[in-house]
Design goal:
Chain lengths: 269, 354
């Protein structure tokens, strides 16, 4: 096997909000083609870590390299352009827009028509480009099985469907790396299974590298290639899923929060 | 926005992606709009000067309201200074025509471009502030600009105002209301079509994305600063264009016409018509312009019974707009256009609709 290439290289990240240390000296890396999970109890700093990667938060210390290039210097909207997509823990769709338009926003950075050519629509290529973009996202709509709600306003959908539309919108960016913040939270078993399938497929078929935050240990162990564990803003473990969940320190971190055991979760699935 | 079912009747199938993104949602609406337009063009010579002048003013206000709607309804920002941009367009067009001899038909869009630049400068705070703070910042633009109009004699003629001639195209003078009406109608149609097109293309979606969830819009690659300021620019363009049409219609531009009151009336038009809707803005402009006149006739009639009403006429006119805004906010917050969407939906389902 050839040496895996590092797609994302996080080194010594520290993030503070006033006196609150959200992240302390976090380092890890994500290889190209991997499904990498970030786990940890509530308030551990997982979302903060994703926000540092996607640009919402600026860490006080440390560096993040994406494809070997400095990420922290880039603006948030630039990060979509270079191939980073994400979904949010609390849904963040454009609720008055149709599902199609939500997904098309993901295509924003790839499209060329602007307010002028847009106004002239028929001359200057906007109509053609819009139709092409529309045709392209149809694949994503099929993949996530949301054909039946295409034209509905996103705000009118059920929770599970909204999560899927968010994923569709993130895929529309054509990302190399996708950041998923609890994609299965609040879902029933069937929806979770669907979502797990989508994550695996987007990783294997679309070749997108995945960083995923997830609380459901069964899913994490089943689908991720490697796992890092955060607790109180510190990284307490990293490695293969099975090794990590057997780690004593990890067990203590979770004790009292959720007394999980792998076998129970397996039975539940 | 509450849920409005798909308006297309059975049998109106979309067979291509281009088809799925048409100017009007249904074939019926396309035809209705064309018929209405043809009707207005044909009927205009016969409706008399009073109605002609009403239609001209509705058209002018509608252009400005469509512009404001891009800023407020579509991008979710706010402006209390729209009347000042409207005024800037009026003065700028007169200035270009009077001082540089620019043909007026060209001076109008050129004035709109100048207003765009001014609007973008005053829109810069929008990159940083939102909501109430932005409202106050735009209020400042209202006062700064009107102050500028009354001081800058080289530009606006100062407190005396500026003369603005009627345009002339190779000897064809727009010197009567009918001809001017066609000019306004032309620009209104151009504005409505351009903005509808904008809303169904990339940058229009970006505006709505910024309104609905600016944090995730940014993560999707939308440059917030750019779009927030751009929406001020586009909105000011149409304010400036409408202002220019206004100035050359009255043939005289005076700073008194562009107070905060007019800014609020523009806001009322888009609230009553329906935030974010192009055709709603036209309906709203008509409503705000006609309402005081309807109230005038109502109070005149009432004055036969209650003579005391006679002296309160002007108050009733003023209050009616305020009352209309409040009533709409309570009972029809999505505006007149939403009424139409519901009628359309109930047609489709007839006889199963309520
Ligand atoms: N914008 C902010 N301002 C202040 N404190 C913050 C902010 N964002 C996060 N924090 C703090 O940082 C810590 C980590 O929060 P974070 O949301 O990253 O946790 P998490 O691991 O995602 O938790 P959960 O599983 O509940 O989503 C918490 O103590 C939180 O209160
Ligand atoms: Mg979180």
């Amino acid at each position: 096997m050839t040496e895996p290439t590092k797609m994302l290289d996080v080194s010594n990240i520290s993030l503070r909000f006033g006196g609150v240390k959200a992240l302390t000296d976090i380092s890890f890396h994500v290889n190209e083609g991997e499904i990498f999970s970030l786990i940890g109890p509530n308030g551990a700093g997982k979302t903060s870590m994703l926000n540092c990667i996607s640009g919402r938060y600026k860490p006080q210390e440390g560096a993040i390299l994406f494809d070997g290039k400095d990420l922290l210097a880039r603006s948030i909207n630039d990060r979509a352009k270079i191939g980073i997509g994400r979904t949010f823990q609390n849904l963040a769709l454009f609720s008055h827009m149709s599902v199609i338009d939500n997904i098309l926003v993901g295509r924003h950075h790839m499209m060329k028509n602007n307010f002028l050519t847009g106004m002239f629509y028929w001359v200057g290529g906007a109509q053609k480009e819009e139709a092409e973009a529309r045709a392209e996202i149809e694949d994503i709509i099929d993949f996530l099985e949301i054909q039946h709600v295409r034209n509905e306003p996103a705000g009118s959908l059920s929770y599970g469907l909204r999560k899927r539309v968010e994923l569709a919108r993130a895929i529309a960016i054509k990302p190399k790396l996708i950041l998923l913040d609890e994609p299965m939270a609040g879902m029933n078993l069937e929806e979770k299974e669907d979502m797990a399938r989508y994550v695996i497929e987007l990783n294997e078929q679309y070749g997108i590298t995945v960083v995923m935050i997830e609380h459901d240990m069964g899913v994490v162990v089943d689908i991720s290639h490697r796992v890092a564990v955060l607790d109180f803003g510190q990284k307490i473990a990293e490695g293969l899923p099975h090794d990590v969940v057997e780690d004593e320190q990890v067990k203590t971190a979770y004790l009292g929060v959720d007394d999980f055991s792998l076998d129970d979760e397996k039975e539940a699935m | 926005m509450s849920y409005v079912p798909n308006p297309r009747p059975a049998g109106d199938f979309r067979t291509s992606y281009t088809d799925d993104n048409r100017l009007f949602k249904t074939h019926f609406e396309t035809r209705a709009a064309l018929v209405l337009l043809a009707l207005i063009i044909v009927a205009a010579p016969f409706i008399g000067n009073y109605w002609l002048s009403q239609l001209i003013m509705i058209g002018i206000y509608a252009i400005a309201a469509i512009g404001l709607n891009i800023l407020v309804g579509t991008t979710g920002q706010i402006s209390l200074g729209h009347a000042a941009f409207f005024g800037f367009g009026a003065f700028a067009s007169a200035w270009l025509a009077n001082s540089f001899g620019v043909p007026i038909l060209l001076a109008m869009p050129a004035a709109a471009l100048l207003t765009t630049a001014v609007g973008m400068i005053f829109g810069v705070p929008a990159a940083r502030i939102k909501g109430l703070y932005l409202a106050i910042a735009t209020l400042a633009s209202q006062f700064i600009l009107t102050d500028f109009f009354s001081r800058a004699e080289w530009f606006s003629g100062g407190v005396y105002g500026a003369l603005a001639e009627r345009p002339n195209l190779f000897g064809f003078a727009f010197n009567d209301d009918l001809r001017y009406f066609y000019l306004v109608l032309f620009w209104l149609v151009v504005t409505a079509v351009a903005v509808t097109n904008l809303l169904r293309s990339r940058d229009g979606r970006a505006f709505v994305a910024v309104r609905d969830h600016y944090l995730s819009a940014e993560v999707m690659g939308v440059n917030l600063t750019k779009y927030r300021i751009l929406s001020f620019g586009i909105s000011s363009f149409f304010a400036g264009l409408a202002g220019a049409l206004f100035g050359h219609y009255l043939e005289y531009v005076s700073v008194e016409g562009f107070t905060i009151l007019l800014s609020i009336q523009f806001l009322a038009m888009i609230i009553i018509g329906g935030l974010g809707s192009v055709y709603g803005a036209i309906l709203g402009a008509a409503f705000i312009l006609l309402l005081p006149q309807v109230m005038e006739s109502v109070t005149t009639m009432a004055a036969y019974i209650f003579p005391a009403m006679e002296s309160g006429k002007s108050y009733v006119k003023q209050m009616s707009i305020g009352a209309a805004i409040i009533l709409f906010l309570i009972f029809e917050p999505e505006g007149l256009i939403h009424r139409w969407q519901q009628i359309r939906a109930s047609w489709k389902l007839f006889p199963f609709s309520r």
